[in-house]
Amino acid sequence: MAIEVPPGYEPLGEEKVAAFLAAVPGVPERLGGGPADWSVREVGDGNLNYVYLVDGPHGSVCVKQALPYLRLVGEGWPLGLQRAHFEQLATHVVAPHVGRAVPQILHYDPTLFAIVMEKLSPHIILRRGMVAGTRYPRLAAQIADYMANSLFHTSDLALPARRKKELMAEFCGNWELCGLTEEVIFTQPYMVHPHNRWTSPQLDATAARVRADTEWKLAAARLKLKFLASPEALLHGDLHTGSVMVTADDTRVIDPEFAFFGPMGFDVGAMLGNLWINFFAQDGHATAESPRAEYQDWVLETAEAVWTGFRERFLALWRGGATGDAYPAAHFDGDPDAIRALEAERQAYMDRLFIDSLAFAGAKITRRILGIAHNIDLEWIADPDLRALCETRCLTLARRLMLEPGRFRGIADVSAACRSIRSEVRTAGL
Amino acid sequence: MAIEVPPGYEPLGEEKVAAFLAAVPGVPERLGGGPADWSVREVGDGNLNYVYLVDGPHGSVCVKQALPYLRLVGEGWPLGLQRAHFEQLATHVVAPHVGRAVPQILHYDPTLFAIVMEKLSPHIILRRGMVAGTRYPRLAAQIADYMANSLFHTSDLALPARRKKELMAEFCGNWELCGLTEEVIFTQPYMVHPHNRWTSPQLDATAARVRADTEWKLAAARLKLKFLASPEALLHGDLHTGSVMVTADDTRVIDPEFAFFGPMGFDVGAMLGNLWINFFAQDGHATAESPRAEYQDWVLETAEAVWTGFRERFLALWRGGATGDAYPAAHFDGDPDAIRALEAERQAYMDRLFIDSLAFAGAKITRRILGIAHNIDLEWIADPDLRALCETRCLTLARRLMLEPGRFRGIADVSAACRSIRSEVRTAGL
């Protein structure tokens, strides 16, 4: 391998996973039997790492190992192994607050940059379920809860400043994955870049128009600056529908290797933006046997419930647990007027966070259509003309979200915009 | 000493400074003669450290040593020695950009937490000069230049994200001095706290009114949150008129031990707020022999020139040297429309920074009248009634700056407010 790796590191490969696990405290007991009885299967369909599912006679585990390059591109794009460290660190920081919304980590090997964690079963990736048109009635509430708890409890509203600075300093070390986000979300989609791709030739003129759209580029740059310099809370950093695993009852958030202290709206917007992509993509998956109109209603309702649930839960946490150094509780525990004024301040805070979230959602949508990494929601639409039409609708929403997020007075306005864009945009290309 | 210190640390004391310097490379040559020929004088009149001026037959140096407690309060308020590390680190980071606006550091001793630097001579502390009514014709331009260069070159507009994160991580270690700022500027002045003091009894009712003023406290809390979570650039962190040394021609910025990555408006506002305090304080120093009306004009003109000079210089740096990761240059180097739009974006950025600066200026003024640390500008007004009147005018401005900074359309509006407050507020007490 041309890429340098630290001493002791080697990619495990399916054949070495069992031997590795045999020496991890507690894991042989969990799996049952011996290494010869364990089946190992590589399942990573993400862009970055290898993921092994290991089943034994008694139980299962999942092993995730970082590779010294970006899997999506290959060895031509080296990428530090430290992302595994930050993934397990982020999980340890948020787990006390989000409970079983994140997988339980059983072991971390800092030499192999490998995380051994519980295998989520029978969960599937949310994005796959939503492309198949499956409803998840508890999804919105559980994601809202995860976001509110992870973001609130790592913000200045809950953390003492010293502790927050200690954590922030550590996550500053995750500069490489932050840099990846800065490039592939906020920079490359707005310029000619060899990594970009789009549905061609249908969207060739659209991509060129975006690259020439100064207002759009300024909005992206403004968001990039916010991403760079607004450590409001510990973000998941890549909270799309591909980072969530679900059953009918259960929602679990995986893959926080992009974790760092950043603007909360980036996480919230990632989730919302990916739901709205799914809404527009359904028209590419509808068939006579599987009409998707009602499912689309469910997707919009889910996005609404994600936001309203998040807002309510976050506010409840703030009202009940403002143990951080911002907004000193002692200053506002007096008369009813002070309590009312603080509540108005909280509402204004959430209004600003809503606007941030919409703008970041727009950026997340745009990158999935014009940048390097695309979604199966759209990719799996076989007819390129139909796909380009769905993508054009996505971009129409994305531009409004990025340029004028403040014109949406509430989350229902975004649902209304989605519906009207769907009925009004009838041809591919902006 | 009851306070624990690291092995090898001891306060130097005047008697040990010469022996310490004798072993510092280059310093004996600079001073000339031998230790017995060197005179040592402790001159620290600040709140935190000991400062020794050392003169030899050929030259001079200054030695600044951190004590393990807050000098202003005594051993009852322990304070980490690391602040000396951050002071020399901050100086090393900004020196390449601000040149001789900061003292040259000759040596840093990490065991004694002692900095050996050039002795500034015949410079005096700006605040003392301004209390005496001395004009400094080059002050505004030189401070504006220092602020623009130090802030621009450590921001995301100039620094690559990785480098900024590395520096940010290091300065997160300065949590203790950041915490001091959070407490004494944004928290304590707005509550009953044993460290607070004010001109009593003249301002007793005023202090109580501030503590009951929910809007004022919310404004302070909002600024505190910005202070906690907006690492826009490497701040000096304590940029008042007591941290500047001057001659008629030369302006030097000292004492950056509070340095950290924070909101630029905090530095700019510290400077402006302290100039406006001086404006109001002049009425307490005017005599028949030394009328101060024209000097007050000069102070307001200076504040205006500080802001306009800072704004122009910062914009010029941005136009010419946007090497950072925010606002990717490649996105905006195209047609004249794009260039115009980016320029409008820059102007809007500076407008927001102006509003931030005014609000932080208000917080800095308030803390100097109701908090722990006061200014000689006001303290040296012997007549408490007159002092309380000047302080009331300061607080009147401060409240407007903090609560409605956006109503000031330009820096001249603040000068106008200063003048009208001075003529309209005729009795002590808000």
UniProtKB/TrEMBL annotation, chains A, B:
The keyword Glycosyltransferase does not apply. Keywords: ATP-binding, Kinase, Nucleotide-binding, Transferase. InterPro entries: Aminoglycoside_PTrfase (IPR002575), Kinase-like_dom_sf (IPR011009), Methylthioribose_kinase (IPR009212). SUPFAM superfamilies: Protein kinase-like (PK-like). Residues 40-282 form the Aminoglycoside phosphotransferase domain. One of its GO terms (molecular function) is ATP binding. Gene3D superfamilies: 3.90.1200.10, Phosphorylase Kinase, domain 1. It comes from the Bacteria. GO terms for biological process: methionine biosynthetic process. Its EC number is 2.7.1.100. NCBIfam families: MTRK (TIGR01767). Belongs to the methylthioribose kinase family. Homodimer. This is S-methyl-5-thioribose kinase.
